[in-house]
Target: Transcriptional regulator, AraC family
Amino acid sequence: MKDTGTVSVCFVHAALEGLIEHGHDPAPVLRKAAIPPELLASPRARVSPAAYGILLKVIAQVLDDELFGQDSRRMKVGTFALLCRSVVHAETLGKALERMTRFFGTVMDDVGATVSRGDRTASLVLYPRAPGLPRHVFLYETLLIFMHGIACWLVRRRIPILRADFAYPRPEHAAEYHVLYSARLRFDQPATAITFDAALLDLPCLQDEQTVKAFLRDNPENMLVKYKNVASDASRVRRLLRGIPPTEWPDFETVAAQLSSSPPTLRRRLRLDGTSFRAIKDQLRRDLALALLADPAARVADVAADLGFAEPSAFHRAFRKWTGGRPGDYHRRVRDRG
Model:
């Protein structure tokens, strides 16, 4: 089963903040990304990474700002490409991160960035340059994803985040952070930072000018799904289930045994990851449904059967709960867009 992942509608709202504050109508932008406006009224709704990636690109083009109107100063379109072409010439990850933080410190007014290194751990730190800045936490969220994604790409491996700190209260969508960053989250901290093994700073950078083009073409979508937190127990359960058709998924006791854990222990660990076995299965069905319905030749009834729903009506109810819309409408929008 291909893991496409999905993006919470809360990040759609966040991405639109700067656009709306600059006086633009979000409807045409949503239309280009094939995201129905009514989806925004459903807090549980999700969109595909492809749709979200298009949304971010269109917002950046409309505002001529690759930080989507989140900083007081625009980061003009093309700046991200310049950054990538600069950091590939660094010898090590540590030098690349130093170059990256200086770069962002130059192009942003509201937030500064730095790299700190200790004996065992290192941190990529973001800090406000004045009280009350930035206006929205989405700037922090975006910068962490961008900087971590570039770092992982440079060394051709995911950099495990040991801990993620945030200089703001726990948001309602904090459960999303477990997948984006780390199982260990702390809020109301002095600074926003991601912490990782300091030894990784000495890894050589393995990209060059020739590979930048493909990286830019596939982003920001690629960074949203490729470098997610994969070390958690929830991720281990997801990986196990992805290799099995939903119609043949084992029960929880069997999954625990295959992961060399007892059911109570695995249940407790999943709870610490902010999820449950039932929620993981629900999320995997949701993500697979979006992937299958992206095929122009797909039939809704066949997708329902492939996902293990006894009746199409049960799939319709589940899909509406997941996305706020109907599977047939989603299939038509994706088909018409492509």
User: Anything to note?
Assistant: The chain has a mean pLDDT of 90. The first helix runs from residue 9 to 21. DSSP finds 16 helices and seven strands in the chain. The chain has three domains: 7-76, 87-208, 233-337.
